[in-house]
Amino acid sequence: MASVETAAEHERILREIESTDTNCIGPTLRSVYDGQEHGLFMEKLDARIRNHDREIEKMCNHHFQGFVDSITELLKVRGEAQKLKSQVIETNVRLQEDGKSLVGSMEELMKCRVQQRNIATTVDKLTHCLPVLEMYSRLQEQMRAKRYYPALRTLEQLEHTCLPRAGRYRFCTIMSENIPKLRTQIRDTAMTQLRDFLESIRKHSDKIGETAIKQAQLQRSLDSGVTLQPRALIGRRGRKEAAGTESGGHGGSPISEQDSGVLDEEAEEVPGAQDLVDFSPVYRCLHIYSVLGLRDVFENYYRKQRRKQARLVLQPHSNMHETLEGYRRYFNQIVGFFVVEDHVLHTTQGLVNRAYVEELWELALSKIVAALRTHSSYCDDPDLVLDLKNLIVLFADTLQGYGFPVSQLFDMLLEIREQYGEILLKRWNVTFRQILDQDNFSPIPVSTEQEYRQYTSQFPLQDPELEKLPFPKKLPFSEFVPKAYCQIKEFIYACLKYSEDLHLSSTEIDDMIRKSTNLLLTRTLSNCLQYAIKKKNVGLAELVQVIINTTHLEQSCHFLEEFISNITNVPPDTANATKLYGTSTFKDARHAAEAEIYTSLNAKIDQFLQLADYEWMSPAQASGNLATSDYLVDLITFLKSTFSVFTNLPGTPVEHATLPGKVAQTACMSACKHIATSLMQLLLDPEVRQISIGALHQLNVDLKECESFARAGPVAGFQGDTLLLAFSDLRQLLNLFTQWDWSTYLADYGKPTCKYLRVNPHTALALLEKMKETSRKNVVLAQFKKADRDRQKLIDAVIKQLRNLIAQHHA
Question: Could you give the 3-state DSSP secondary structure of residue 267?
Fold first, then answer.
């Protein structure tokens, strides 16, 4: 059984050796050597080899004849092949000989083909390189010509279009490396030109503003009813620039490539203020920075620099208030600044916007108002203030034409109007004082009709009676009246001049003028009149003339009302219209002059009374032996001459002529009362301790002289003995003592019909006390004479009764 299996295994191994690749026979042979039947396998293997040899031998025997036939045929073919080889060699030699010229031609053709290919390649490369070189050359020319925006466009095209097509050449690499440097150079150069432009417009903003203001002034003078159109101020170049900048992208390319700065105004006649400025540096720089992607950087820089310039422009000079030229230069610079900004606003897209310009204007407006308030407060010349007002109005109208709100400026002008009014009042105060100082306070003599008409044209005098009088004649007032009236009208004109162009209604102007005129009348003119009245060495005649002058000025107030209404076209009866206070002003001045007359007259009387030298202890004398005191004679003479001056004043036929009579009556009554009061005070003077009956008789003689003066009627108009009433107190007192009528006084005291009704018991008691001292001294000196003793007892008894009377009434 084992032998069968061994035989089968060996058979399998042999089949595997026959069918397996030689490289994989190792494991099969290893299995043979690992087994125990190695010899038996070798026998099997030898038997299998012998079988295969027999099969090979059978196969060869079967095909041997065919092999032999094939060898025979091959030998035949070899001969033919030798012949063919010889023929081929001969043909080849002939062909080689014949093809030598063709090979040369082919080699030449090949070379030509290579050259042609190289030429085509070169032409193609040059086609891409030449535009690069041409564009770079153009770039260099543009840089030399300072045409930086086209240069930047060329640079952009060169970098993004031409260089990528040209390929990697050394010159292209150099160009690519130079492109950032050229961009930086263009950017820096454009910024330098912008700085030059900003510096130039800062220096020439004065000229720019002056031109804009002149154009606004011309426009307003041509047609004040048409709103000023600021866009019309843009000249031909400005319109071209505006068209160019609005045509594309970020404003298009700049029209001009000229240097920045202010153009020569005389080089070309241009109608607009902006044509003085070449804005191309701004446009150019804006376009360049836009292309570079740095537009925001440029906008921020431009606005920052312009804000700095605005602060410089808005800073006024410390001495600006001294001359109008200082204000004009200040306004010109501001207008120039905002004209430039307005033009940039309307010719660029987004470089500055309306909010930015309005913010700058708000800043400027606050600083302008503050500066004008400060500097105008230093001004004391009304002409300069008026010129400043006109300049501010023109400044405001110019900027308003560009769309800037200017209401604050007009509000400030109303504030300055108050200051202007105060300055006018100061000037007119000096004028009125000069007129008063130069006035002779006497009626104006008129010799001819021409002179009369000249004065009546200056002052509205309406006096039919005076017109009937023949020449020469005198006007009732002095030179002060027509001059003052004319000056009041000049003041009204000055107020009207300031109110012009302030966009006020006629009613507002009328109200402002009336209020200012009231201040002139109630404060300035009133103070000047008081100054003239209170001035030293003013005579009574001058004071009376002041009264006459103020009366005529008072009557002229309604003419001033009509004058104001005529120039303002506002009827005087308009509701809520301010009325002139001239009537009360002149009445107050007249009353002050009257009071000064009375005060001066009384002061003069006091000077005479200071000369009174009574001998209070003089002995009693007969009345016929006493004479009036010298001081009183002089006083009466002075009063007569004074009141004759009052009486002889002109103007009797008209209403105001009654005024001197009234003043004279009041002055005369006041003088008499003052004399009586002063004589009474002399009697009751505490320093006078003793009074004799002789002194009373002397005083009685002086009083009679005064009464004689009063009775003579120094001033017409008194009824009966009205003037004597001024001396009635003193008269009754002296009668009581000189007549020694104490029984009547004591019996009738307190009755309405009392003879000595005006004698005060206190006054009588004081005088009796002084007489008692005199009687006591006389008793001692007279060694107790019976008559003196009786008189002393009588005085004591009267004193006792007076004291009882006073005590009763007091109780």
Answer: coil
Residue 358 neighbours by CB under 8 Å, 6+ apart: none
Domain 612-739: assigned CATH number: 1.20.58.670
Contact by Cβ (8 Å): 370, 430: no
d(CA 635, CA 699): 15
Looking at domain 421-598, which CATH architecture does it have? Orthogonal Bundle (1.10)
Q: pTM for the full model? A: 0.64
> CA 191 to CA 294: how far, in whole Å?
12
Instruction: List helix spans (H) across 314-448.
Output: 324-347, 354-376, 382-401, 407-438
d(CA 451, CA 457): 10
Torsion from C-alpha of 126, 128, 131, 134, nearest 10 degrees: -40
From the list 142, 144, 170, the residue with the least C-alpha distance to 156 is 142
Total length of the chain:
811
Distance CA(271)–CA(212), nearest Å, equals 10
Name residues whose C-beta falls within 8 Å of residue 681's C-beta, 6 or more positions apart in sequence: none
What is the rounded distance in angstroms from the CA atom of residue 129 to the CA atom of residue 118?
Answer: 16
Percent of the chain with pLDDT over 70: 85
- Distance in angstroms (rounded) separating the CA atoms of residues 696 and 743: 20
Q: Are 314 and 367 in contact (CB under 8 A)?
A: yes
Is-contact 476 552, C-beta < 8 A?
Answer: yes
Question: What are the distances in angstroms from CA 748 to CA 454, 742, 803, 804?
Answer: 68, 10, 16, 15
Q: Where are the domains of the chain?
A: 6-58, 169-221+275-404, 421-598, 612-739
For the stretch 67-85, pLDDT in tens is 888 888 888 888 888 889 8
pLDDT in tens, 743-766: 888 888 888 888 888 888 888 888
Contacting residues for 186 by C-beta, under 8 A, at least 6 apart:
143, 148, 151, 152, 155, 288
State the pLDDT at residue 26.
73
pLDDT of residue 235: 36
Residues 775, 784: Cα–Cα separation, whole Å: 11
What are the helix (H) ranges across 406-504? 407-438, 449-458, 464-468, 480-499
The burial class, CB within 10 Å (0-12 / 13-18 / 19+), for 553 is buried
Q: Tokens at residue 677, please?
A: 């009061």
What is the DSSP-derived secondary structure letter of residue 520?
A: I
Is 410 within 8 Å of 502 (Cβ atoms)?
Answer: yes
- Decide the pairing of beta strands 444-446 and 473-475: antiparallel
Cα separation, 337 vs 204, in Å, equals 9
Report the percentage of the chain scoring pLDDT > 90.
Answer: 1
Cα torsion for 690, 691, 692, 697, to the nearest 10°?
Answer: 170
Query: Token pair of 458, please?
Result: 């200056």
Q: 609 and 678 in contact (C-beta within 8 Å)? A: yes
Rounded to whole angstroms, what are the CA distances from 790 to 749, 793, 794? 25, 5, 6
